[in-house]
Each structure stands twice: as structure tokens, then as C-alpha cells.
Design brief:
homodimer, Arc Repressor Mutant, subunit A, Alpha-Beta Plaits, 2 domains, 4-stranded antiparallel sheet, elongated, DNA-binding
DNA sequence: CCGATAATGAGCAATCTGCTCAATCACGGA
DNA sequence: TCCGTGATTGAGCAGATTGCTCATTATCGG
């Protein structure tokens, strides 16, 4: 059972409104939620201060940049060299995100590539990083559920 | 070698500007890139039409909602039931994203949870979905490289 | 019952947006 | 070389939004 976060029901409604209508102005959100503009403004400011809302970010589709392929590369690394490996991974432009995970595999690396050869090259480059012992590449074939946060927000309203 | 996407160098500079300064106005972007406001406006409109730029979205931190834990759950499913499984996963609020991947495991499921017990419960719920044969949960311990797109944009400038 | 905090309504200057229009520029085909 | 299409530019304008301040009112806990 998730403990209450620092957001209350009103905050959740604000966030839900923003999640569903990203271009909505502060005024529109205030109207929709049923609070005054000033309240909406101060709450939004607080949410940003808290880090709950990362102002707005512009999500850019890698496919539009010429990288239609996405893959998860898991890697086993020499634990002692974890930070060095992370730094080396950060130098690979096609690496979008790296997470340290529990279990037999140490790293979850999200990469994009222009085509299969490109992906093979990138996987090779990662494997060549000192400290990387083994890698395993899983190509993303299909988005079955697109990234979303609204179900969590809806639940916070109850 | 990635083939050229539908974005040219100017588009890339616009996107880079937006990625680095998400709150920048159209005017500010135009100035920074060195193009007129009209050009910036029409290019931005085109990028949105193309789907390269998803207008703006508000990224909300699950941790602020009371879900500090993130995990990757991989699952093997009965291939024939893939769509049904996906639909069932979409009904789980804590499931943020589901991708069909190549390899011995069929699904990559990103979930968030309030605590370890919560995660255990969610994993159980997923395993109980008809068609899900096996699951494996990997807890995200640390963000080593935060999601980013700027390196790809910088490369597109050359 | 009182006090601190939050919410509200009002107002204001500055800015941004969406849109239109006409002129100029760049580039490839005839 | 000339022409035409599409992109770019500068200008302008009405309307909306933003960030901010102020005073007043509500709300909730001690």
C-alpha cells in the first residue's frame, strides 16, 4: 500500500489535468479543477519546487531523429568499476538511460539505433567498455502500453 | 549509421534549445537559433505535425505521488495471448509502460510501487494474468544515466 | 476562541501567442 | 539562364497569459 506522497487530492487533480491536457494554461487548469488562478499558480510553483512536476519538458521522438530502433541492453559489470562503466556509457550518444538494477544483471541500458547494424555496433561499443563482462540485447518490437502516469493520478483522487 | 531523419540541422538546433531550456518561448528559441519568429513558429508546428516533438508534456515524478520504487518486470507469455495480456497489464495502475521485446523473454514491464510489499503484490497480480507464464523482477537501485536526448541532437548538428 | 496558513478576487504591466500579409530569398527543373 | 515553388522574413494586431502584489476571507488545529 503506497504511503501518501506530498501531494494532496487537489494537487493530484491539477497534475491529472496537466497530464491529460499538456498545453492547458494555468487559467484553464484552475477553472477545470475549480480553484482560483492564484491558488493554481502557487500550487504549481510548489509542485515544481518539490520536484513532483518537472516544469514542462519537451519529449522528442528518437525516431524522428533517424533512430527508429529501441533496445534494452542488460549488462553484467565488474562491481568495482560500476561508476567508470556508467561514465563510459554516458559518452555513448545512443544511450538514453542507464539504471543499476538488482539481480544477476547489473545494468539496464536503454539505447536507440538507426538500424540493425547500428545497434550491433553500439552493443559492441558497450561490450568493449572496461568492466563490462557480458551484455544481452533485447530489441523493442512493439509498444504495448505507452508510458503513462494518469492511472496513478486517478487513484490518488479516491 | 543512422539514416537522416526528417529533421534538418536547423530543426535539430531548435529541438536542442527546447531540450535544454524547456520553458523557452518561441521567441527566445528563434533568437537563440538565429531565425525569425515566423520561421521558428512554422518549424515548430511542422515538428509537432511530424510527431518529432510531442508539444510539451509534463513529466510527473512517481516518487512524489508516493511510489518511490521502480522496477523492471520481464515476463514470458503465451504468444497467442499477447494482446490479452497487454490489455490486462494496462489495467494495473502501477504499470507505467509495457514493451514487447525480442529474445527469450517477451515483455518488458516498467512498474512503480510504494514499497517492497507493494511491489511483491504487483508482481503477483501480473503473474496471475492468464497467459503470463513466468516473471522476473529487477528493482531499480540507482539512476546512473538520467534519460536524455541531447547527445543525439548534438550529433545531428554536425 | 484564536492564530497561522491557505485560498480568493482584483488589478496591472509586460509578454507571448496565433494569425495574416506582402516582400524577399533559395534552389531545382525546364 | 529564367521561372516557379516553397521557405524565410519583417511587420503588425487583437486577445490571452503570465508574474506579481495587495487586501480580504476561509479553513483547520491547538
Amino acid at each position: 500500500m503506497p504511503h501518501d506522497g506530498p501531494v494532496d487530492a487537489v494537487d493530484a487533480r491539477i497534475l491529472l489535468e496537466l497530464a491529460e491536457h499538456p498545453r492547458a494554461t494555468t487559467l484553464a487548469v484552475a477553472d477545470r479543477v475549480g480553484i482560483s488562478r492564484n491558488t493554481a499558480q502557487s500550487r504549481l510553483a510548489r509542485l515544481e519546487r518539490n520536484g513532483a512536476l518537472e516544469s514542462f519538458e519537451h519529449r522528442i521522438a528518437p525516431a524522428a531523429l533517424g533512430y527508429p530502433l529501441t533496445a534494452f541492453i542488460t549488462a553484467q559489470v565488474t562491481q568495482r568499476l560500476l561508476d567508470e562503466v556508467a561514465a563510459a556509457l554516458a559518452d555513448v550518444p545512443e544511450v538514453l538511460q542507464v539504471q543499476g538494477i538488482s539481480g544477476p544483471v547489473d545494468l539496464m541500458i536503454q539505447v536507440v539505433a538507426g538500424d540493425a547494424d547500428d545497434l550491433y555496433r553500439i552493443a559492441g561499443r558497450i561490450l568493449a567498455i572496461p568492466g563490462v563482462e557480458r551484455t544481452n540485447t533485447a530489441l523493442v518490437m512493439r509498444q504495448l502500453v505507452d508510458y503513462r502516469i494518469t492511472p496513478l493520478l486517478r487513484r490518488a483522487l479516491r
